[in-house]
Amino acid sequence: MNNHTRKFFIYTRKSTDTEDRQVRSISDQLAELKELAVKEQIEVVDIFVEKQTAKAPGRPVFNEMLLRIEQNEANGILAWHPDRLARNSVDGGKIIYLLDTGKIAELKFPTFWCDPTPQGKFMLSIAFSQSKYYVDNLSENIKRGHRNKVKDGIWPQMAPLGYVNVKGQGIAPHPEYAPLIKKTFEAYVTGNFTLRAVREKFNALGLKGKSDGELAVSNYQKILKNPIYTGLMRYNGEIFEGKHKPIISKKLFDQCQEVMMRKSKPHSKGLKTYLYRGFFHCGECGCFITTETQKGHNYLHCTKRKNPCSQKYVREEIITSQIKEEIQKVSLPLAWTKWMIEENQKDQSSELQASELFAQKTKNAISLLDSKIEKLMTAYLENALSLEEYREAKNKLVNQKQLLKEKLQAFEQKTNNRFELTENFLKLNLEAKELANERTGKENLHLFKKIGSNFIIEARTVSLEPRSAWRVLSDWGFLGGNTEQTALRADSLS
User: What residues does the Recombinase domain cover (predicted)?
Assistant: First the structure.
């Protein structure tokens, strides 16, 4: 080729991916290529700089350069090495094809010999193939390394929001964001927040993504679906036990999944929100009690969808007042409460031995699950199970094990949890009368649900069936407010 027709493009590329870590910088490549152009008396038409991996086709700068070559703006390429041009078979094939058709007359590399002869094109094909093999092999090695890490309980990638990467240790809770992640789950599990409301609340509290960017609704959905916050790691569809510190419990995570599933179901729109809608049944016909607004007041009444019903309307504030009265009735006398707390503490000490037996049984169950997981791996390696069957069975066992571990951990931290619940129940009874007037209608309704079930309105009066411990109080007359009888019983047990 005559010197006056030697029009070349300079192409440089360096990505941030692993395969290019040892490659010279773009400025170094440019300096060397310009020096080669002067030495070879080559006219440089344009310079192309790309900061993107070449392991897959679709590089915009590279494609623009080839398009301009096809338009005869240049007939040669200067690059530092063939692997700068292509690390995949598609782009490598394009270069070879343009050489075959004569659109590319020359390729020049400071580190590699190439000319448009059959031998030169063969050597170029070998160079492209080696580049692709390097990328494929590197990718496989990285995947293998990542899998080995997750099997050892170490998260191998960039830490998810709420964690930070710790060199040699995987990930650890972020001192600022981990508490916010926990509160995100705690807020969502109440069912009172949509994903959009969660986003607004916690973005305002300072929870941010990469480069301090604001989190989108989809980011919060991913957070709430990610089991990594429970100590488990989902990697390539498989669940692994992590060594990192959990931010939330598996129980809270599972409850959030239930809330998300419930919220995803279609529901009717356009209904005004009322506090007691769908909560009560009619005591006469059994139909639901609904609420509607008339002249600025909310009224509850039977839907009367089954049989003729004689029940009348009742104002919402009357029902609210009756609920407060029912809550106040569960207040226990001080003497009873003190005696019950003392008895509860005595029972607590005698329970210790039985609790230790439970702990040992739980540990044995965890060991059994470990054995089953090992057997699953053996079955998969011996081709007795498909990869899909292995993953499905293993994920179930790992989830079971995580639940048992959390039960054991909770037990070891609070062996007296049952007794604390009893004490809390007694204190709740003691405080019910005082707190009933201070709570909002929604809070009182929440406590009302704890007291009983089968909530009825008949003759404009609320009734219910007390639950468990509350039923005991009802049977003894506490719900009826018989203070004289209560005092006599308290004296007999003091």
Answer: 160-266
> What is the rounded average pLDDT of the residues 391-402?
90
Domain locations along the chain: 3-138, 163-264, 281-330+431-493, 352-415
Crossing angle of helices 217-225 and 177-189, in 10° steps, is: 90
CATH for the 3-138 domain, from 3.50.50.60, 3.40.50.1390, 3.30.450.20, 3.90.580.10: 3.40.50.1390
CATH superfamily of 163-264: Putative Large Serine Recombinase; Chain B, Domain 2 (3.90.1750.20)
pLDDT at residue 314, rounded to an integer:
94
Query: In 3D, which of 8, 179, 163 has the Cα closest to residue 78?
Result: 8
Most confident of 16-20, 262-266, 379-383, 490-494: 379-383
Over residues 440-466, mean pLDDT:
83
Considering only 24-38, 452-466, 477-491, which range has the smallest mean pLDDT? 477-491
Q: Is the pLDDT of residue 319 over 80?
A: yes
